[in-house]
Specification:
With about 300 residues, this protein is α/β, with parallel strands linked by helices. Helix 7 packs across helix 11. Strands 5-6-8-9-10-7 form a 6-stranded mixed β-sheet. It has 11 helices and 11 strands. It is about 35% helix and about 20% strand.
């Protein structure tokens, strides 16, 4: 790990975590502080969709029996997000994305199918040690949060862009805005979502669009094929570059006024986890709940 020891990794992650936390005194309110498991049980009971047995929405690190002093929602449980959660007095992090870098989301790397287990990785180990030593708990909430109607991830983006009044039939995934060029649209999205470097745009900059599909997260080619013919532009998280981007580019080459704006998966899901924090406050009253955005992981070098 380029000379960085596990101890140094954990020390760096903990820097700044000594700030005075914001903690509700449950003795004064008469409430009993819940455990992480109790909070998850409440979420399952109140989320409003059937809970699937096969899901990524499980505990990823920490002890579910831990008494919770505060809850943070985010799109990724990064070291920075966890440090800021500790500063706020929170010890339960609810994330829409994986904590350990893959769908398997385990504190050790996953091997290829048919191959033996890979050796331990120092970054995986150090991150898990950081969570354990600071008595944090990480739980993923993606499948079932996304299954709610209306789509809370799309709602988060639409609210962040100030487009609530432009929803079509109340659906945040379909927006009709006053005519705007793709260039102006991309600039507006970049500013309001605080995109530092991860944005990619396909389409003629001067082409004017009105009908927009908002598709946070990962967008499959099947979804692109179904949606792009019906709208002028798609704002999405991520795609497979050789699928949807090439389809959109060929449409543009054929003379169609179409646009595809990509902001990155985690950034596209961050506003939806702000919506999640607001909803969780109706489910958890004994501990403070707040949203901490993971932000855009990318940056762009100066021209």
């Amino acid at each position: 790990m380029n000379g960085l020891s596990r101890r140094e990794f954990v020390r760096l992650g903990a820097m700044g975590a000594a700030a005075v936390p914001f903690v509700v005194d449950t003795a004064l309110t008469g409430a009993v502080a819940p455990t992480a498991q109790a909070i998850v049980d409440r979420i399952r009971q109140n989320v409003g969709v059937e809970w699937n047995r096969t899901t990524v929405d499980t505990f990823k690190a920490g002890d579910p029996s831990t008494v919770i002093t505060g809850v943070v929602t985010t799109s990724l449980a990064t070291i920075d997000v966890m440090r800021r959660a500790m500063q706020a007095g929170a010890n339960l992090i609810i994330t829409s994305g994986p904590t350990f870098y893959s769908r398997a989301d385990t504190p050790t790397p996953s091997g290829r199918r048919g191959a033996g287990p890979p050796p331990p990785d120092p970054v995986f180990t150090a991150k898990n040690d950081f969570i354990t030593r600071n008595r944090l708990v990480v739980w993923r909430f993606s499948d079932h949060w996304r299954a709610r109607t209306p789509d809370p991830f799309a709602q988060g983006i639409v609210d962040a862009l100030g487009w609530a009044k432009y929803r079509v039939d109340g659906d945040p995934r379909r927006i009709t805005v006053p005519a705007i060029t793709i260039d102006a649209l991309a600039r507006d999205v970049k500013t309001k979502l605080n995109v530092r470097g991860g944005m990619r745009v396909i389409g003629q900059p001067e082409a004017r669009v009105r009908k927009i599909a908002v598709l946070p997260g990962t967008v499959s080619i099947q979804t692109t094929l179904a949606v792009l013919p019906e709208v002028d532009a798609i704002i999405a998280g991520e795609i497979r570059e050789w699928e949807s981007s090439e389809y959109a580019r060929d449409l543009v080459h054929a003379g169609r006024s179409k646009g595809l704006i990509l902001v990155g998966r985690s950034l596209s899901e961050d506003p939806g986890m702000n919506i999640c924090a607001g909803w969780l406050k109706t489910v958890v009253s004994e501990a403070p709940v707040r949203w901490i955005p993971a932000g855009d992981p990318y940056w762009r070098p100066a021209a």
